[in-house]
């Protein structure tokens, strides 16, 4: 799977709070389980974490570990 990396616009806004991402410590997130669509930008890890929590994006995405299951994780 290949994707092209491009720098976002200097005025790119955070997907969560709307702040300019380059005024902070920006993070680029791309959903590569869905054809590596357009990147989503966050100004910092706090906004990314809050966005994930508020949109319940981790529900059902973690495997359950079992010492007897050879196919898990």
Describe this structure in words.
By secondary structure, this protein is mostly loops. It is 14% helix and 8% strand. Strands 1-2 form a two-stranded antiparallel sheet. It comes from Natrinema salsiterrestre. This is Homolog to small CPxCG-related zinc finger protein.
Shape call: elongated
Spatial ordering of strands, largest sheet: 1-2
Q: Give the class from helix and strand content and strand pairing.
A: little secondary structure
Q: How many strand elements?
A: 2
- Low-confidence stretches at least 5 residues in length (pLDDT < 50)? none
Mean pLDDT: 82
Protein name: Homolog to small CPxCG-related zinc finger protein
Organism: Natrinema salsiterrestre
Short description:
The protein has 73 residues and is low in regular secondary structure. Helix content is 14%, strand content 8%.
Write the layout of secondary structure elements.
Elements lengths: L26 E3 L10 E3 L2 H10 L19
Features:
14% helix, 2 strands, two-stranded antiparallel sheet, 73 residues, little secondary structure
């Amino acid at each position: 799977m290949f994707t092209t990396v491009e720098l976002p616009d200097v005025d790119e806004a955070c997907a969560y709070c709307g702040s300019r991402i380059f005024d902070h410590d920006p993070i680029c997130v791309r959903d590569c389980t869905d054809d590596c669509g357009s990147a989503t930008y966050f100004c910092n890890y706090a906004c990314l974490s809050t966005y994930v929590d508020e949109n319940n994006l981790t529900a059902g995405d973690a495997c359950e570990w079992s010492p007897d299951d050879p196919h898990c994780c």
